[in-house]
Amino acid sequence: MTTTTLNAPVVTATPTGIQSSLALAGRLLLASLFLPAGISKLTGFAGTVGYIQSVGLPFPELAAAVAAIVEILGALALIVGYRTRIAALVLGVFTLAASFFFHAYWAAPADAQMMQQLLFNKNIAVTGGLFVLAALGAGCLSLDARRA
After folding, report:
1. Residue 127: what are its φ and ψ, rounded to 5°?
2. Where are the alpha helices (DSSP H) in the chain?
3. 15 with 139: CB under 8 angstroms?
4. Residue pLDDT, tens place only, 92-122
5. Which residues cross the membrane (predicted)?
6. Of 37, 123, 41, 31, nearest to 77 (Cα)?
7. What is the DSSP letter of 2?
8. Running DSSP on this structure, what letter comes out for residue 79?
9. What are the Cα distances from residue 69, in Å, to 24, 39, 54, 108?
10. Could you read off the pLDDT of 33-89 as tens digits, one per residue?
11. What is the distance between the alpha carbons of residues 146 and 27, in angstroms, rounded to a whole number?
């Protein structure tokens, strides 16, 4: 361990097998949320457009297409660990924005507030995981590690 000028410890270590395995598992678990969602947006495109219209967002067809592309390509990038930091950052910002538009529990009817708050909080936690992945990278079991 070394110290910086601010006396904050800096740990430099080679990732262990468990760290690499956990990073892969984390990427796969995060991708398992986005890949099916992106595919369902394509297969139920009209419904997705209608849902986007219901919250008053402009250009709902374009928004639905962009959402599907972000979710599918982002999930695939996480699965194989390709440009993981960028994919995680894009998915994180996307998820954070979607939370405020689609799970605004503070504006929901009383009978829907608890469910919307649960979904909002879940998305905030997922965003946190994505931001950690963006900060730390994909780990050794990834295409990113092979490119380095």
Report:
1. -60, -40
2. 17-43, 45-54, 60-80, 84-102, 110-136, 143-147
3. yes
4. 999 999 999 999 999 999 999 999 999 999 9
5. 28-50, 62-80, 87-108, 124-143
6. 31
7. E
8. H
9. 22, 9, 21, 28
10. 999 999 999 999 999 999 999 999 999 999 999 999 999 999 999 999 999 999 999
11. 16
Type of residue found at 103:
H
User: What is the token pair recorded at 74?
Assistant: 């982002």
Residue 139's pLDDT band (cuts 50, 70, 90): very high
| Structure-block tokens of residue 38 | 């992106």
Give the integer Cα–Cα distance in Å for 60 and 76: 24
Count other Cβ atoms within 10 Å, centred on residue 28.
14
Closest CA to 82 of 131, 26, 147: 147
Measured CA to CA in angstroms, residue 92 lies from 15, 34, 88, 108, 117 at distances of 24, 11, 6, 23, 18
